[in-house]
Structure formats: C-alpha cells, structure tokens
Amino acid sequence: MAEDDSRRTWNPRAGPYLGEVSSLAFLNLPQHVSSIPYLLAGSGSEILLYELTSGELIRSFQVFEGVRVHGTVCSSTFVRSGEIYTYKLVVFGEKKVKIFSLVVELGSSPGDISVGLEVLDSSPRLSNWVFDVCFLQDSSDSLEEEEDKLLAIGCSDNSVCVWDVKESRMAFEIQSPEKCLLYTMRLWGKSISTLRIASGTIFNEIIVWRTAGLGGDNLDNGQYCASHTLRLAGHEGSIFRIVWSLDGSKLVSVSDDRSARIWEIDSQEVIGPVLFGHSVRVWDCCISDSLIVTAGEDCTCRIWGMDGTQLEVIKEHIGRGIWRCLYDPNSSLLVTAGFDSAIKVHQLHKCGSEILLDTVGVHDSQDKVESFSARLPNSAQHTGRMDSKSEYVRCLQFTQEDTMYVATNHGCLYHARLLPSGNVRWTELVRIPEEGPIIAMDVLPGGKLHESCALDDWVALGDGKGNMTIVRVIGDMYNPLAGSNQTWKASPERQLLGTFWCKSLGYRFVCSCNPRGLLKLWRLSDPLASAACSAYDISLVAEFSSSFGIRIMCVDASTEHEVLVCGDLRGNVTLFPLSKDMLNRVSVSPELKIPSLNYFKAAHGISTVSSLSIARLTSSKAEICSTGADGCICYFEYDRERQALEFMGLKQLKELSLVQSVCQGMHFSKDHPNNEYAAGFSSTDFMLWNLTTETKVAQISCGGWRRPHSFYLGDIPEMQNCFAYVKDDVIHIHRHWVGGEKTKVFPLNLHTQFHGRELHSLCFISADTKAGFESEERKISDKSSWIITGCEDGSVRLTRYASEFGNWSTSELLGEHVGGSAVRSVCCVSNMHIIASDIPNLPDIGGQDSSVNDSERPCLLISVGAKRVLTSWLLRNGRQNKKGDSLVNGNGDNRASSDVSSVTFQWLATDMPTKSKKIEKSPKLDGVDEDTTVNVTESRSNSYQGGESYEDDWRYMATTAFLVKCVGSRLTICFIAVACSDATLTLRALVLPHRLWFDVATLVPLTSPVLSLQHAIVPLHTSLEGENNNTSSSDVYLLISGATDGSIAFWDVTVCVEAFVKQVSSLHIEKFIDCQKRPRTGRGSQGGRKWKLLGAKRTQDSSSNSVGEAAEEDPVTNGVLSQENGSNESADSPPDTSEIKPSHVVKNTHQSGVNCLHVARSSGSPSDGNGLMFNVISGGDDQALHCLSFNILSNSPVNTSETPSYSIRLTDRGGVASAHSSAIKGVWMDVKWIFSTGLDQRVRCWYLDKDGKLVEHAHIVISVPEPEALDAKAIDEKRYQIAVAGRGIQMVEFSG
What we know:
1296 residues, nine-stranded mixed β-sheet, five-stranded antiparallel β-sheet, 6 helices, 96 strands, flat
C-alpha cells in the first residue's frame, strides 16, 4: 500500500518543444524603454518571447495543450500603471482562440524586464480553422474604452466571427457572399465598417469583401451584412499567404506557382512585375513602403523593391522551408523562421536608393563593414593595361586588423598599414637580389619581445630563382623597419614553391618545398641573441621526402610528439619523424634525407589539403586536424609509441566547397564553451561560417580562392573580421572591426537550429560516455542530456538538453548519410563485453596492458536508413586544442584556444551497396576473402543475388549494436544487426581501429520485414575473485526482432559472435590490408570502407541448438516454452558467414506490425546465472502494448574447458489491447516503469506490477505532431527524462 501511495506522487510534465516555428509577431514597447521591438514566436504549443537587442530568450509560455500555435496578434495599445505595461495578446491555433493579458514590468537596470501572461478569455472551439484575427473598435463606447473591445476572427469557410472581449461572448457571425473553402485569409481595418477581408480560395483566386453595420458599428444594433468588393485572378496555383499594406491600398499574395504578386485594390490590377525567383512554393510575405519580402520552400528569403527588382537573397535555413517572415521598418530588422526551428534576425540598411542586407553589424553602431581598395605605391607609373613589366601582387597576409604584408613579382616586400580614413600607408621593407619574382610568402607574427620594439615579425620569402629570404621586421606599426635579412640558395631555379613557419618550432626553423614533395628544414642561428646583427648563419637540418612526390601545401609540427605533418596538393597527409636531438644538434645524422614515418593516402580525395594543425591529447597521443578543398574537416589520431596514424572521422560542410581553416572564438554564454568557425570558399565567394550556430558570418564575392587573398579574425569573428583579395592590380579590402565589447551582432540565431524535416529515430547517449570527459566538460555533462536524432533528409544531429535550466541548449549537425538518404534508425553503443582468449599466438599489441581502460572503450553511434546506408560515428569528447592567442590571421593560421571542446561525434565509416555488379576476386588471407572494389558483397546477400540488377529502393528499417573485445587483442568489434525492407536480417561487424566491415551471419527465415530490433546480452557466470583477469564471464548474445506480421522472434547469435571475435583477433589484418586509405567518397558523399567477408555461408547446426522449423510454429499463449542449448561447436571454428534460425518465434503478438521494442531486466532478478529474467515490451499498429518475459537458465559445466549449456524460457505477460487511440510508435521500459507514445500525440506512463500486468498511471498531451520515436533515461531514482521525436522533438519530465 505504501508503494502505491508513493507511486501516486509521480506525474509527467511537458518540457520544451524544439521544432517548427509557425508564427511571428512584434511586441513594440515605448521608445524610451526600447527602440528595438521584442519578438513573440509561436512554436508547438508555446509562445517564446525574445529580446532582439541581446538575442536572449526572456521567457516561454505554454498556451495550448496539444494544439499548435498558428498565429499571434499583439495589440498596438497598452495600459500603463507606473512601470508596468499591459498589452492584449491573441493566440490562435487550429480551431482555438485565446486572449491573454501580457504584463511587462520594467526592472531597475536598463533592459531588465519581467514578463507575465494571464488568460483573459478563451473562445469555444469553433467549427472551422482560424486563419487570422484582428482587434476592432466599437463606436458605442467612450474613447477611453473603445480600443480592442471586439475581436474579428477569420475562418476557413470564408466567414468572420466577431467576439465581444468585454462580455466574453460571440457577438455575431458574418458569412461571405461567396462561400467556399480557403487556404488563407487576412483581415484589415479598425472597425466593423472599415473591415476588409482578403480570402485566398482553392480556385487560385483572391476574393476581397467587406462588412458593414446597417446601423453603424453599434453592437446593440445587431444587423450586419457582407458585400463583395472584387475578385483578383492571375495566380496559377494555390494561394498560401496574403498581406495588406499598412494603409490597406495594396495586397501582396504568394502562391504555389512560385510567384508573388502586388495588387492595387482600387484599380483591381497587378501593379509592377510578377515577382519570380523562388524555385518552389512560396509560403509567406510581408510588405512595407519601400520593399517586399517573400519566404519559400526553397529555404530562401528574398527581398524585392517595389519595382520588382530582387535586392537580396538570404539562405540560412534548412529543410522544408521558411514558414514565416516579418519585417519592422522602424528598426530595419528582418526575422525569418521555418521548419528547422531556427529564428534568424537580419538587419537591412539603405545604400543610396537601394536596400541591402547588412551581413554583419551591431545595431545603431557606426562601425559598419568597410570596403575600400588600394594599389601598389608604384602602380601609378604604369598606365593602361598590365604587361610583363608591370608590378603586381603575388602574395599578401594580414598580421593585424590594420596591418598586412604584400609581396610582388618585382621582388619587393611591403608593409601596408590601413588607416582609419581608408587610405593605405606603404613602407618598402626589402627588395630581394636580382628582383626575382616572389613565389611564396609566410609570416610569423611576433610580440613585444623587447621594450624598444613594438613589432617583431618574421617574413619568409621564396622567389623564382630558388632563393629563400628571411626578413625580420622591427620598429613599430607606424615606422616598420627591416631589422635583418638573409638570402640563400634553397632550391634550383623555378623549384621553390613554398615557405612555411611552424609555430611550435619558433623563429629558429623554417621550411621550404619543391614541386616533387621534397621538404627542407632550415635552422637559423639564434637571431634574438644578436638582434643588432644584419645576418646570421643558415644550415640545412634535414630533407623530408614524401613518398607521393606531390607538392606540399601546408606543414605543422609537434616537438612533444616529435612529428612533422605535411599535406599535399592531392589530398595526402604524410608524417615524418622530428626528433628533439636533431633539433637541438645533440646528434647529427650523416644522412640528411629522412623517409616518411607514416601516411594517409587521399585524406581529402584528390583535393588539396589547405591546412593542418596538431593538438595534444595525451603525452603519447596527438590529434591532427586537416581541412581541404573537398569541403571536409578530417581528424586523425597519432600514437607516438606505436608510430600509428589512425583516421578518426570527418565533418563535411555543405556550405563551403573549400575549407581554408578552422578556428575558435570567444564564447557568448556559459552554454556555449566556444564557437567554432570555418573559413573558406563557396564557389567564387569567401565565406566565414559559424559551425556552432550554423549561421553565415560573412560572405564576400572575390572571384575564388586561386587569387591572392588573406583573412584575419579577432576574438569575436562576427564583429572582428578582415578579408583582402587581389583582382587585376587592385587590392580589395573588406573590414569589419568593432571594439571588444561582448554584444550581440546581426545576423542573430535566436532559436536552436534543428532538423528541417521529419524525424524517424532518436536515442540518448549512454551515461558511460562521461568517462572520457575532462573536469570542466564533466560539470556540463552532469547537468545535461545528449540526444542523437536521425532525419528524413539524411542528417544526424547531436542535441544537448540542459536539465538545470530545462531547455534545449545546442544542436550540432554531425553529418549526412550518403546521398542524403533518409535515416530510419539510430542506436548508441558504449558497453564493452569481453570474451576470454584461448588463442596461443595473439598479435602483438605493442606491449600495452591487456586490460581494457577507458580510452579503449569507444562510444559508437550507428545510423541506418534508405538505400541500405549504414554509418558509424565515433564519440570525440574532451578534445584539447592548441594554446595561443585568440586570433586568426593570414591564410588560415589557427591561434584560437579553448581548453576543452564540446562533446561531438565524428563520422567514422559507412557501408552501402555499390551499383557495380563486378566483383574482383583476390586470394584468401587466413580465411579472409578480400573485395577491393565494392563496399558490400552482392552475391552473398539474400537481397543481392549476383544476376539481379542493382536496386536502391530497399532501406534499412531498424538496427541494434553491441561491442565485443577479445582479451589481449587491440581490436574492438562492433556487431551491428540491421533489418532491411526486403525481409532480410543480417548481423554485421565493424572491426576497429581499421574500420573494416564484415558479414557475420544471415538470420533466416523471415516471412515479413522487420520493423524493430533489440538485443540482450545475458551474463551466465561472473569471474570469481582471484581469477586471472583474462578470463571473463560467459555471455549469451540474443537478438529480438518485431516484424510487420505482428510476430516477435528471438535469435541466439552467441556461437557465431564468439567464433568471429576469436578468429579476427588472431589475424594480423594490417599486414594484409592497407587500412590507411580514406574511402572513395567524392564531394557530397561520406562513403565507406571496403567490405570484407569471412568464409562462405554455413548453416548453424540446428541439432546443436534444437531449433529447427518447430520454432516458427511455437505460439506462446500464457504458457511457458523452453529451448535447450547444448552446442558443442568448437570456439576455434572459423567465423564463416552463418545462417542462423530463430530459437523462438511468438506469432500474433500484435494484429499488425510491431513498430517498437524495448528490453529491460526484470525487478527482483539476480545479476547473473539461473533465474535471470528480462522483460520485452512491444507496441504496434494495432494500438496495443504487449509484454513478454524470458529467463536464461544455465547449467555449469563440469570442466572449465566445456561450453556451458543454457536454456531460454519465454512467458507471456499479456498486455493492453487499446493502450493508445492510434498506432504506437515508441516504447521504453525499465524495471518498473513503461513509457509509450503514438500518433494520438500522447505520452502514457505505465506501471508494471508484480504479476507483470500493465497499469496506466498517467498521460500527457505533447506538442510533437506525428510522433515517430521515443527514448528515455533515468536521471536518478525519482526522475526520468522522456524524449519524443516526430515533427520536432520534445522533452517530458516524469518525477515523483
């Protein structure tokens, strides 16, 4: 009884919704309070209030239950009482209308306000959907009371209902003379007599009509009529949105025909040209005196002049499009919102007669983007077209926001200072001998090393004669001087193509390279010891010869890890040894040529590696980050002890075709430890992209990356960025530099950007992932929940829910499936299961301890979906970055610093079928059949018969995964079960760290496609105290599947899992397979590794498992079934591809498809051995929940060498026939609670009693339309978090 009483205190509470934003409205406070309006945004059933000056969320309000907000209207008038301002706010959605009192109370400090929302009135549920509302006046009252007394409600049947706000009643209803169904309606007017209605009909026409009172606007008269005014025809598609101009003389309409039209009401004609520009449907529009804004399904917002000229195009949303746009002419702020949950705020400014988008700016700031040009000081001597004798710029590089170095083809090095007036002050520093053309330049910015020197920069120049010149620049920024310089022959003529400084090596070492991949490292005598000297000794330290023979484009080094990293013109990354003894001259090898230590071929395909950086992970491990012209950021891990280079993942940026570099800036809030930026090029434009908020910071048309260019970023790149490029003989400079104050800048991203389409799956990241966090990251993680979601457009995102504040904090786009194929299922796996080793000759693991530590426990994310794409992602948390100044300069020199980066996953490997039917055969290697041309073996899959043509219509519907490791082996194997829509179920394996895929087993027979998958790993015996750590418990590996025919099947895969692990662990895979190759991906693809197959198909001995065909005929009806397992198969058998039959099939569990499954240990069950019980909960299209239980009963073997035998016993616990009023889409359970959701938009909480019966405890209506998936986790003993995904995502807190 006490337990029942404690359970009654448990209740669900709806948390924040993250999904489509369906309404926008401004809240205009008095000018002395704020010159910038506040923003009211409707998302799900909530209203969000934002302050646009700072971009902060003031407060959110739940206004409906299970009804989406479709529109908000705020009264223009207010009632003031001291420092309290009261507005009327109308919110409508579907067939509901609510009127609220919005109370704004000013605080003691400027900008400090508190906001409250109280319900004033609520209309009864209307018979039709509401499209628009409008406040009206009633002339019968006094002037003090006439404001906002009436509310006109426009409905989808082309009628207007008038609600009396004062008396809370429906005063009357006016029906249009032409009754028809509408797609949209907009109202205009201040009284009943002036009310005009514009209705967009299903016949692609606009009907304009008005209302009038026969006895005036007096409500007591009660006689009103509607009169038809005009009909506007011209659109060739459905009309989705209509807006009135402020004076009611014009209409703007947008349509399914991709156009916008401006209508003059008096002339009944289209004025100006038809606005064509959108590629698909146009959803919304707004109009002011000087411009028109349209927003469409192509995710663009377009700004038009009244003459039809397209002024700007903004494209920063993703997914199904931009639903709403809103423009405030007083502050010139443009707000857009859409399906992707993001709310973007841009500021427009006037430039002469044009209205342009201010890409970066602070409101009311005089510091706008400066654009000016400069010429070389001697360019005035040459007039007309350029010729061979003309001097032009070959290289330029920023060192500060107002300083750059410029090198020319005449061998001149200039110091250029950008003056506030827009002019440039030139100082010629040096002219190299023979005036050879300068080919390459690199600058190492210095600091104030001496009190007498404000400048201490080092410039390395390489010319066409093969000479290399080092120039030390001293003095101050106003009077720079060439303190010392030295020139020497570094290469033959025309063979010197690059000069590089390495920040970790400092001033004493500089590199040069030739076209054939030969890198030379030069030592300079200590220049700081004799600053007055004009020359110093130069000596060659070593020559590093790349095995690829391709020109080196970028270099970085780490003295701690004694490694030098190079990236070349064809996407290869090469490592060379760089010993401290060699740098310190302790031992000088007579052989200067040093071969490569390791390499990774085609890290960026065949595209150029544009930048490299090395970050410390541990004393023996370093992370290498590379960017390239394929638009990707690649991550590698270098182990100094093993001298191994392993590919750890990549991130692809669709916005950039070339990523020049990645950098970090200062953070704005505690929720954002840092902001990461990518600088690069999109076609012919330079672009700076915020990777954290997924917003464009700057975009400058420059003609492409092949022209000389440079950029420089400050602490806050949104406010501090410079870019310069050369066109013809002119240097074009774009600079935006505002002081260091931490203020918000435009464009703003007010709301967390999320998926732009429907979600099919989600999962919480396991709590075990916190083991790798650093201390600061752990503090954030302990207060946060991390959720992975997969979307219809193929994107996978990692979203953080801040439990402490109860809101969605950040959402990071991890990447996309190949070809944008839809993601159907995701799962996270981190628990490691150990298999005892009885292999006599296990491959050497480099002297490492055989025990498994935290660093060897990878956390993987598996996502599957359409076109049979299977992708794995690796958790990368607690990554440390290089220390340094928080500035980025030159052509991508990263100097940002952050102790610990955000938790993230990086793409690891992808498997998908190939379109080619050709399979090249290669010799067997210890039982391995290598396939070097395709990612999946067509001839060995039930869905891939050799004679069939390629079909990509099949999709993976569900997946589950678990990690297994053999004691003493460095290999980790992730077993992945995938269910395909062609009614096949396959067990596959991903071998790490080599990223190799294998076929393990095919689960047959299947009569229907599998919709849901779960696994259970049951320990039979734990290792006793004092036993060798190399021995482990015996585990039973079970897969549980739910099919479209309503059946649930149990598959025992223990034998093939153990055999596969032992066989693969005994192989020296790296000796036979070149694992250091990035998969052939190409632009826009994240491809996979080669597909491997071990052996040929074999059928698991049915006699040993006593399964046979009888398993398919065993219905479980409130009874008990038992199946013995006495397998004698040797553990040393080769891991051939098996055909495994089900141990049990429970038919007719559901009357239709089993949409979801979940497995949990039963309450009161022992931790292992006999009596261990698990519960399986399932939900289906038949609206039912069903519960099964199974026991693992084991018999201990007499000899330890014998395989333990066990039996699986099933028990039917029954269920609830009508658990939901619609199909059940997601379910989760633990020992006592069960949570479910369905298309009825409810989350129901069930209690599992002692008899195994389900008892509904509570339910809650959620804001997520069309829920598709559910996952939950226990925060502690008295609190659960339930996440539901569909058209958006919502968190539900369940606590007691």
